[in-house]
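Appendix B.2, paired examples.
Example (i):
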Amino acid sequence: MYFSVDVEADGPIPGPYSMISIGVAVAGFSNGGFTPADPTATTYYRELRPISDDFIPEALAVSGLDREVLLRDGAHPATAMAELSEWVRATAGTGRPVVVAYPACYDWLFLYWYLIRFTGASVFGHSGCLDLKTLYATKAGVRLSQAVKRAMPRHLQSKPRHTHHALDDAVEQAELFANLMAWNGKTTAG
């Protein structure tokens, strides 16, 4: 089972900086082929309490979240990661959970670090991650540096816009993933 994950953070790396929100949407299933899911049907979203005093104001501003509100009302990371792990296990059932993200390197870095740090294990294993940027580059036959959303054919792009709200963006990425999985590559006709 593929889970589209988007993370908002107040800096570039976990530890010194904090994951401040996470959105997850079920993107689809693989049973010998790919079946997309309605990404709005099964979701998880949490805003988290920061883990350090350090933050980069410009990074925090991207999400539009208020640090003081997060410090007061955000979920403790251990609670949020335990809930997420339980939700993923229950949702995936007997399927193997795999993260999809664009670009996965950022979201996976925070997600994996937080799961290990606050639960001791990753429900996605150590490598259950698929990068949509690489998937597009491979199918399109372009360099990774050319695998940017604005250069993708319009029929691949998702209808929802990128808002920097973690759940909105997880839903957006799930639609992009479904479009990429259905695409035969290199052609602009869908």
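Example (ii):
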Amino acid sequence: MTERTVKKSIYAVSMLLVVFMRIAVSEGILRGLDDISSDAVWSTTVQCLIFGLIPFSLYFVYLKTHKEKRAVNKIFGEFGYRGKISLKGAAIVLIISLLTPYLISCLSSVWYTLISDLGYKSVSGHMKYTTGILFADIALTAVLPALFEEFTNRGLLYSASRNPDKPLRVIFLTAAMFALMHTNVTQVFYTFFFGLITGGLVYVTKSIWPAVFCHFVNNFVSVMRSYISDVGKSAFFDKIYNLFTGSVWGVTGATLLFFVAVFIVFVLFLRLSAVESDRRMKCGEEVKTYDEVTTRYENLPLVFAAVLNGIITVITLVWGIIR
């Protein structure tokens, strides 16, 4: 079994464990806990353990059994943690990261409108924020996913699928798996596009850190939006939202603004790619691709994970319509 197959198998194991965790929660394993406590148990278990410690340990053990003396260095190297980025490149990443929440918010609103028209009804709790809960929510919703979801998706899976001749296919694959990983019909659409952005960042910078940062910024903005709404300070944002959705002219303007933002992000990606390519050439850095011969059945674990998560995603849609 090749390293690529092993990585994809480990990824499938992580997805299977997430499903088991969801089943356990639906059976009431967290019954009796308040919202923030249940979120804390869920996030630390899924993020730190299932997306972090377990896949790291499994791959570490595999490397050690194959006489790899510097297993930790190999993991961090393959997963992009040793990748460097220039100061100019970091500035471009910052701008892309600040624009991303707007793009994702637009896509989320459009997608939710579409599935709502099909009869889908969402059931979501409303968290009452205190200062302590706000910081806890930032840690659980922004910090942990940025670290551990990126480790699993843009680290483990991306390195297992890396193909220097077909980079777009790898970016689309990891984005699709990232979207299905959420096993929630309300998230599957916009998380795919978010996966394209973070996968693109990894590709052009050869580092996982820009994706981690972008992920944190996007989720942090989401937390702050919920906080502002809860404390009753969202009047200004509500007016802007109503302005863009309350008329045909408003919707047209919002659509144009969205495509302008998409164009800006595209141009920034081109600029970032040029900047980082020049930096690597000047520094004489060699980009390792970790190529292996592709085996016939190496993608079976990903097919299993995609089908499993896809079925659950469809179930959430059906359940949201019939309940």
